[in-house]
Design goal:
Chain lengths: 343, 311
């Protein structure tokens, strides 16, 4: 495997609030490989967005604080300084699209100029060159009548169109990584599919890596090469999309999968939609040991006392769960063991 | 767009007609008339004068004559000042009030936007606390107090310097205008500062500012191209009434600084029940206010594309 494009190691982010310190991200490590899609999944408040926003320097500090960890883009640390060779990496090396396209664009500036702005800042294009390129980019993002559209304002666009415009803006400087923070959550289903197709097409054309944040496992199945499952600010399992869907090793991943509606209702178990009991932990005061143990159906005594270490289940598949320890008993149904067989 | 403004202007004319009518009937409902001065006069003289000025006619026909005159742009002749036409009074004195008012609005607008943006940037730190304290002061202290204090300070400063740094009153050069304009614009500046501060704080936390940061724009560019323009919208909205308020409400400042503006005539006329001057100045100020509000709408459309195409 080639050298990863982005290496994040042991990232810790917390927020100082009146109520205490919220430990939003607690030791997250992952790699992003050029041309591949990494999906980060997990329920609301598990630290997905905070993780990527800290890479982008979008965490307001204070109250936010990155107090440990590193993130290296092609070997250069991007947490300490957002600049590489005098250039802001945001918008040029890593760019980002957001959940709600309706509010993510400046309402008083036409769409073309907002795209052109990135090129003026990072590439030193003149106003007219940048605007001409913005029209091409809108065209690449499959917006019809791009030249006319570029002169229009965000309120004249539909939600799906705005997300396309956001994508055009994000790919303007041919970034190495595109971060998509729940890019389809605010859109209706048919538009969702179009946006996802557009992202995969652009990825094929440009060879950029995508970090896709979502809580929709359907989107993950469609887009992801690698998947990272987060819970309470930590990574509980990561592996290839197949590993996560067919060979899950962590009870939380299994819970998420069972909570996914299916069309294939052959067995009784598949007819009922399971949910994970309980609610995510309070990150002011995360549980000791494994953060998932209060909700885990297979929780053991050790789970409440010590943080599990990572168990390797495959070449790039690992999970943090005591069930995979040598001293644990036989694995529950549906979980994959270290030797790779589902029991 | 054009039809929209044609509609606005037509509505504005209706508003002016309403102001004129309300003033006319309100004015005549007040006991006394322009002839009820301190000079005693016989019934015959009085009747002759009333006939001369048309005051003996029924109210309805007086009203129609007034409307006709106003429509022709003729406000008539003052009852109390010999041979002065109201149009001449306005023509002579309004430019002075307007100059003072415009200067005050420039102070208020620039100051409000600047201080408001500054307090928002330094939220809850000492510049914010100090400025917001001054803002409360600026809003709550009435203008005649501020005017008197600033004039007194000017006297002190001139004495200390041994020469006239700035004149303490009167009218003529730019130097005469500075302090009165500042005093006149002060409360509006304070109000605009508060408005700008809150709208700035709102804009800073919006999604599109986050997008601008994610694009890697320099902070100065985010401020000037994305924050300021959006934050200034509510300020522009209140600027129209503020312009009219300042231009018409300046008579206290005009009197303290001995400025021959229109405000003085406006107030005097009411005390003397000088019908034509009251009517003339009120209708004129009313029209001015209506015009300013329409003008601000036009400017608003230039800043915010969303209001341009609608209606």
């Amino acid at each position: 495997m080639s050298e990863p494009l982005l290496q994040v190691e042991n990232l810790h982010v917390d927020f100082q609030t009146y109520g205490g310190v919220v430990q939003a991200v607690r030791g997250v490590s992952f790699d992003v490989i050029a041309g591949q899609t990494l999906a980060i999944v997990g329920e609301s408040g598990c630290g997905k967005s905070v993780t990527v926003q800290s890479l982008m320097g979008l965490i307001p500090m204070p109250p936010g604080r990155i107090h440990q960890g590193s993130a290296r883009l092609r070997g250069q640390d991007i947490l300490v300084s957002k600049m590489i060779a005098g250039q802001d990496i945001r918008g040029s090396q890593i760019s980002m699209i957001f959940q709600d396209p309706m509010t993510s664009l400046n309402p008083t500036m036409n769409v073309g100029s907002q795209i052109a702005e990135t090129l003026e800042v990072h590439r030193g294009y003149s106003k007219s060159e940048a605007f001409a390129r913005a029209i091409e980019l809108l065209d690449m993002s499959k917006i019809p009548e791009a030249a006319k559209r570029a002169k229009q304002y965000p309120f004249e666009f539909s939600g799906g169109m705005l997300q396309r415009a956001m994508i055009a803006m994000a790919i303007a400087c041919e970034p190495a990584i595109l971060v998509a923070d729940e890019p389809t959550t605010a859109l209706d289903v048919t538009i969702q599919a179009q946006i996802l197709d557009l992202l995969s097409d652009l990825q094929k054309e440009t060879g950029m890596a995508i970090i896709l944040i979502t809580h929709d496992l359907g989107v993950v199945a469609r887009m992801a090469d690698e998947v990272m499952v987060m819970y309470a600010g930590q990574v509980v399992e990561k592996g290839s999309a197949d590993d996560i869907f067919y060979r899950s090793g962590h009870p939380y991943t299994q819970g998420l999968r069972q909570a996914m509606p299916t069309n294939n209702k052959s067995t009784e178990a598949e007819r009922t939609l399971e949910s994970i009991d309980g609610s995510p932990p309070d990150l002011f005061n995360p549980p000791r040991g494994c953060a998932y143990h209060p909700r885990c159906p297979y929780s053991m005594q050790v789970c409440a006392k010590q943080v599990p270490s990572a168990s390797k289940l495959g070449p790039s598949h690992q999970t943090q769960c005591w069930l995979h320890h040598d001293m644990a008993g036989p694995l529950p149904d549906g979980l994959v063991s270290v030797d790779g067989a589902a029991r | 767009m054009l039809t929209y403004f044609a509609k606005r202007i037509a509505l504005g004319l209706v508003t002016i007609w309403f102001i004129a009518s309300a003033t006319f009937f309100g004015m005549h409902a007040v006991p006394g008339d322009p002839l009820a001065g301190d000079k005693a006069m016989t019934a015959q003289i009085r009747a002759n004068l009333e006939a001369k000025y048309g005051l003996d006619k029924p109210l309805g026909s007086q009203y129609l004559i007034y409307l006709g005159n106003i429509a022709r742009g003729d406000f008539g002749i003052s009852y109390t000042q010999e041979n002065r036409r109201v149009n001449d009074i306005i023509r002579e004195h309004f430019p002075i009030s307007a100059t003072l008012g415009i200067l005050a609005i420039v102070f208020a607008g620039l100051g409000g936007v600047l201080w408001g943006a500054l307090t928002a940037l330094y939220r809850n730190r000492w510049p914010d606390v100090v400025i917001m304290f001054l803002v409360i002061l600026g809003i709550s202290v009435p203008s005649f107090v501020v005017a008197a204090i600033s004039q007194w300070s000017l006297v002190g400063a001139n004495l200390a310097a041994g020469t006239t740094i700035l004149p303490i009153g009167g009218w003529g050069t730019v130097w005469h205008m500075l302090v009165p304009a500042l005093v006149l614009g002060l409360s509006t500046m304070a109000y605009l500062t508060r408005l700008m501060r809150s709208s700035m704080l709102e804009v800073v936390s919006t999604d599109y500012i986050r997008t601008a940061k994610a694009k890697g724009l320099p902070a100065t560019q985010i401020f000037s191209r994305h924050q300021l323009r959006n934050a200034i919208l509510p300020v522009v909205t209140v600027l129209g009434p503020a312009i009219a308020g300042i231009t018409t409400g300046g008579f206290v400042v005009e009197i303290v600084f001995a400025i021959p503006g229109l405000g003085r005539y406006f107030v005097q006329a009411i005390q003397q029940l000088d019908y034509t001057v009251i009517m003339g100045t009120t209708v004129f100020y009313g029209a001015f206010l209506v015009f300013m509000v329409i003008l601000v709408d036009l400017v608003y459309g230039l800043i915010d594309p969303r209001v341009r195409v609608e209606k």
